[in-house]
Amino acid sequence: MATTQPSPETPLHAPKLTLIKSLAESGDLTSIPSDYTYSTNPIQPAVSDPEEYSIPVIIDFSLLTSGDPDQRSKIIQDLGKACEDWGGFMLINHGVPESLIKAVIDVCKEFFNLTEDEKREFEGKHVFDPIKCGTSLHGRQDKVLFWRHFLKVIVHPEFRFPYKSTGFSELAFEFCKRIRQLVRELLKVISRNLGLEECYIEKTLDLESGFQLFTTNLYPPCPQPELAIGIPPHCDHGLLTILAQNEIGGLQVQHNGKWVNVDALSDCFFVNIGDHLEILSN
């Protein structure tokens, strides 16, 4: 069978996707492209009455580690109930400096402000690449593209990070180290709540050799927000997600069939229970 060879002018690869930040900032954008239109299982508006539905439990981490026995016992029970009923909780006084959190958020913004060509250096080709930057999970393979720009990095057991922008890697290293310490302490409390030894989860899952991911998401302004979606409804596949929000917020959780806004509190993390912990705890 005869075959034809592509001429030098024939493109060998599909055109590059325009990164969502550049698309959103184009001055003549008044509507979103059709491949960003999300119409399957549309998200319902969040409950508006804060007295009817709100995240009810705020856990004071300092009392978990240094409170008197009665305080500690009560908070352990509150944390367990929040995990069962809501799948997460707000965490205050967690020991991660507010200045570090702000610095990490600021340098994330600097990364997203890099040129498209600079960010494409970290684009990644596969889901499990140690550094992956993009818009949607699989680029042009996805039928619907998400209205976000993300950077996802595997930072443990081996720390790998983009060398741009200036100072990003050093700040992220310190932040991720502190988050790993925080997660270890939280897992001790969760183990005790389950009636297990404090180090049961860490030992059983061999956390020292497990993956830790650093992910940052940018959601640019959208001219038709009712048609687009930043991230579709999902469960987190890991063990625990420690989430820091900026002042804009936007996170929702589903509770009893209703979507509830998770309002960003100053110097506060939202801790989300992932699939690994749900399976382990049965």
TrEMBL record:
Which top-rank group of organisms is this from?
Eukaryota
Q: Which GO terms describe its molecular function?
A: metal ion binding; oxidoreductase activity, acting on paired donors, with incorporation or reduction of molecular oxygen
Keyword Transmembrane attached: no
Can you give the residue ranges of the Fe2OG dioxygenase domain?
209-282
Pfam families the record matches: 2OG-FeII_Oxy, DIOX_N
Sorted alphabetically, the keyword list is: Iron, Metal-binding, Oxidoreductase
Which InterPro entries does the entry mention?
A: DIOX_N (IPR026992), IPNS-like_FE2OG_OXY (IPR044861), IPNS-like_sf (IPR027443), Oxoglu/Fe-dep_dioxygenase_dom (IPR005123), Plant_2OG-oxidoreductases (IPR050295)
User: In which family does this protein belong, per the annotation?
Assistant: Belongs to the iron/ascorbate-dependent oxidoreductase family.
What name does the UniProt record give this protein?
Fe2OG dioxygenase domain-containing protein
